[in-house]
Amino acid sequence: xxxxxxxxxxxxxxxxxxxxxxxxxxxxxxxxxxxxxxxxxxxxxxxxxxxxxxxxxxxxxxxxxxxxxxxxxxxxxxxxxxxxxxxxxxxxxxxxxxxxxxxxxxxxxxxxxxxxxxxxxxxxxxxxxxxxxxxxxxxxxxxxxxxxxxxxxxxxxxxxxxxxxxxxxxxxxxxxxxxxxxxxxxxxxxxxxxxxxxxxxxxxxxxxxxxxxxxxxxxxxxxxxxxxxxxxxxxxxxxxxxxxxxxxxxxxxxxxxxxxxxxxxxxxxxxxxxxxxxxxxxxxxxxxxxxxxxxxxxxxxxxxxxxxxxxxxxxxxxxxxxxxxxxxxxxxxxxxxxxxxxxxxxxxxxxxxxxxxxxxxxxxxxxxxxxxxxxxxxxxxxxxxxxxxxxxxxxxxxxxxxxxxxxxxxxxxxxxxxxxxxxxxxxxxxxxxxxxxxxxxxxxxxxxxxxxxxxxxxxxxxxxxxxxxxxxxxxxxxxxx
Length: 481
Fold this sequence. Notes:
Elements: H1 23-28, H2 41-45, H3 54-71, H4 90-93, H5 104-108, H6 114-122, H7 154-157, E1 161-162, E2 179-180, H8 182-193, H9 209-218, H10 222-239, H11 244-265, H12 274-291, H13 308-327, H14 345-369, H15 374-395, H16 404-413, H17 416-423, H18 427-442, H19 452-463, H20 473-480
Antiparallel strand pairs: 1-2
Helix pairs in contact: 3-13, 8-9, 8-10, 9-10, 10-11, 10-12, 11-12, 12-13, 14-15, 14-18, 15-16, 15-18, 18-19, 18-20, 19-20
């Protein structure tokens, strides 16, 4: 009997079968594999023509593992996309609803439905053909690769623009469509005229990284291209609250394609493309901030498992681990701001108060932890240094995004042991993190960071038992006043 050795076969889910769907949907009924499944260890460790040492192999493996965990988190898969289309089941995404005069799938993709052309010939005049009701609230691909490239009308041919093909190292299936919609052009224009100004200090960005180089890199790097459009959409949503939902849908669509493209090229990480991959990872973190706080997610700890943003941060760390010197060279070389000097007298007293309160926390933790307090003391000492650097930056009138390198740098430099304490919601680690939230408040003038200080400090309050609340009274007062 072979029954004992045969694996159990799951029955297929019953569904309605029909052969009357539109032609475009029939063409679109193809199986799409997980882009991360292509990133096997053999592909990762032996990209064509590239030899890596053991340290680089280790960093590559960590980067792939981080991105894989970002997509596949079991029952805790990331769900910070607000677009309803991202929550559809795989079966529903591939089914035609057979609605006439145009099925929903063709309407959503802004392509001409077979039903529409058939009905138009029989009973409808062109002027009476319905228009997509949501064409202004969804990201549109023009034309679809499942439809003939011949435009259906002169107007349709004028609403798209050919862009250069992606770099050869990226599988074609993971790249963006080779056309841009009018909405895409609007977002790109907004990024190069408005959004880029919010990502860096123009007075010290002598290389014009965000204004010139990042948009230019986007034409050959799909991940950067889609992620800057996602940032522009979220910025537009911030500037136009009444239209935020519309722009969030566009941002979600671009983010989806952007992060898939990053996962596809991670296997080919090398000295030539490491800057592009690094900037893609930075943009992913920016999009996360710009999307706004989510319930239960507090950047470095979560109420539902691994913190989403911390997964992204680990990805950045893995990329930097293999090509740090190369990444921060050329146009990305670190530029020092000569205008940042001493702390102004008006801010020095405020800094002294922070230092005194953190000294009390240091004594409290030392008395209760004892010999194991070294990791906490190191975190407090480095946080004090970041406070000083941040207040120097603010004294030069460059708060907001100017403080980001100091605030995020503190998290980046924490050893994995301390990060694990935060993830486990260790009370002493959370008390220290509460003081770090003051740096988030200093970043509050950046549209990306609005509300994050109150959100994270609120999460800390909810996780700490009442006996520890007195030790976070000061940062709570500073943030909430």
